Amino acid sequence: MDWLLEPLQFDFIVRALVAATAVGIVCSILGTYVVLRGMAFFGDALAHTILPGVVIAFLLGWPLAVGALIMGVLTALGIGFMTERSAIKEDTAIGVIFAGMFALGVALLSASGNYTVDLAHFLFGNLLGVTNGDLWTIAILGGVVLLAIFLFYKEFLVISFDPVLATTLRLPATFLRYLLLILIAVTIVVALQVVGIALMLAMFVTPAAAASLLTRRLPTMMVIAGVIGAFSGVAGLYASYHLNIASGPAVVLVATLLFVLVFLFAPGRGYVWQRL
Questions:
Q1: What are the residue boundaries of the structural domains of the chain, listed by start?
Q2: What kind of architecture, by CATH, is found in domain 2-262?
Q3: Which of 204, 61, 194, 69 is nearest to 121 (CA)?
């Protein structure tokens, strides 16, 4: 029992647990749409393109979330506009913007000094450094994301599973697409402190992918993904504390292990069950 209670004597661990749980839930629930719509590459690219905004905020002494949010929303809108109004395919546009913006962020950071330490902090997060201000940011932005998912649940459901029906029902498909892109950008800001830029994709995709193997119903999938995400955050933090490893990667490794177990043993759909 000591291994469970011992970390809780430290305030920074308690804050980290709250942050990891909240981020695990928000990322995993929105991640169900990312998985269903095949937007994993977009989510990864968008996570990397916020680096210039984060670095500029860092250099100016602003909250990192401000720079990340501004850059994330602008990039999401830019990618959406470029892929809609030009002959360039979406994955090509994403690839170009992803590489260019990430290179710009690294260049800005390298010109500021402390290159290695700061880049590691941005790429892999600093879960143990979460402050009360960070918790408020996570709570407010995470709440906005979950509220939007609740309000537009039916619309997102239709455009994810049946775009033709969405057109028949005259749903504002363009608006909903941009809204989903913006929600992904906001969620990236929520998760920035916990897992960093490089590992962001795992929190979007891995819990949701595991949940998709356990159920075919979207509401149930969201609940299961949220539970897996929250558990991964808590278990990863405990693993980080007791094994003395980086907290962000530990969270992702737990989520990955859970996915592997589900992939192998999911009732009816797991690899082992299909071979029986």
A1: 2-262
A2: Orthogonal Bundle (1.10)
A3: 194
Alpha-carbon torsion, ordered 146, 147, 149, 153, to 10 deg: 140
Rounded CA separation 151/143 (Å): 12
Task: Specify the DSSP class assigned to residue 87.
Answer: S
Residue 3, both tokens? 């291994």
d(CA 45, CA 38): 13
Per-residue pLDDT tens for 140-169?
999 999 999 999 999 999 988 887 888 788
Low-confidence ranges of the chain (pLDDT < 70): 1, 85-87, 113-119, 276
Tell whether the torsion through CA atoms of 258, 263, 266 and 271 is positive or negative. negative
Answer left, alpha or beta for residue 146, where phi above 0 means left and psi between -120 and 50 means alpha.
alpha
**Per-residue burial over 161-197, b = 16 or more CB atoms within 10 Å of its CB, e = otherwise:** eeeeebeeeebeeeebbbbbbbbbbbbbbbbbbbbbb
Structure tokens at 123: 């790429």
Paired tokens of 10: 């430290």
Q: Which two tokens stand for residue 121?
A: 């902090």
89-121 tens-digit pLDDT: 777 878 888 889 989 988 888 887 665 556 677
